[in-house]
Amino acid sequence: MRDKKHITGLFAAFFRIGLFTFGGGYAMLPMIQREVTEKHKWATEEEVLDCYAIGQSTPGIIAINTATFIGYKTGGIPGALAATLGMVAPSLIIITALSALILKYRDNIYVGKALLGIQGAVVALIAVSIIKMAKKAFFNVFTYILGALGFILLFVLQVPAYYIIAGALLFSVIYTIFKTRRAS
Amino acid sequence: MILLELFLNFFFIGITSIGGGLSTIPLMTEILISKGWVIETEIIDMIAISEMTPGPIGINMATYAGNKAAGILGGISATAGLVAPSVIIIIIIAHFYNKYRNNLYVNGVMTVVRPVVTGMIAAVCANLAAITLFDVKALSAGGSLLEFFQPIPIIIATVVFVAGYRFRVHPVILIVSSAIAGIILL
Predict the structure, then answer these.
(1) Has this prediction a pTM greater than 0.95?
(2) Is B111 on the interface with A (CB under 8 A)?
(3) How far is it, in rounded angstroms, from Cα B61 to Cα A88?
(4) For an engineered disulfide with A146, which of A127, A182, B102, B115 has Cβ 3.0 to 4.6 Å away?
């Protein structure tokens, strides 16, 4: 399968996924299922879902993790690179063009008003995402406390985000050791 | 050398973002503001553009920020930096796929880091709300309560929240209609 045609096929499939999905992560799942499992049969439904689980628990952007994983599984390292490049290319092209336009027209009164209107919407959209994430992240008192802690450390105490994430990672290791000790 | 600096900083953001979606936002905003690549009031424009254009939000934000800092090559460097950790780590994991699946430490990271990051995103959201929905500066300058609340952005945010959460209206439709509402009402 590791032929040239497959590599360009991977690039094209992930280019389409990147081009036609908004928001990344979960918003991409239906499109990835269509391209990867139904159209090309590169992976089974289960493998795609596993890939999501891995994508979520490893560092990095879920969409990229999925692209790299499927590319690697079906085409080795060249496949991984082709799929990832395909996923990234639409963003690079569109955002580069758009940010040039916005820089040019920022001082236009209508563009300014439109951006102000959008800002209110963005706050609300982030709030919607937070609720969706919270449903998965918070499942007992312990996780609620951790969430509250993350909020207070960043918003009230203004601890740098880097320290909070590093601290959380360290704590998760201690937590796992403690939990396995107690279980055994 | 700004290209290398962009690459390294976004590489770092890529490594520390766990859980997908908006999890890159807390650290990214912090780095962008401290480096002066994107000013604070522009962060929300960056998020808006990243939400309303196709592609993963994290990638869109990296491209936007890189572009603002150092033009087209800057956008490419930032994006490459953000993507590189994923590519390296996933290739390694894909190799040891089955062993990784049930790793206890992975579960531990999920249980602990995910809620913390969710809380941190809420903090960023609260900061953005303070800038756009409320005028904190007017209040501390001794302005009235009426000056503190920004009625039209608050109404837009409320409508978008209900439409997005209850009725699952697509974000692109919500952002475009808020832009139109802004032009008419503000």
Answers:
(1) no
(2) yes
(3) 12
(4) B115
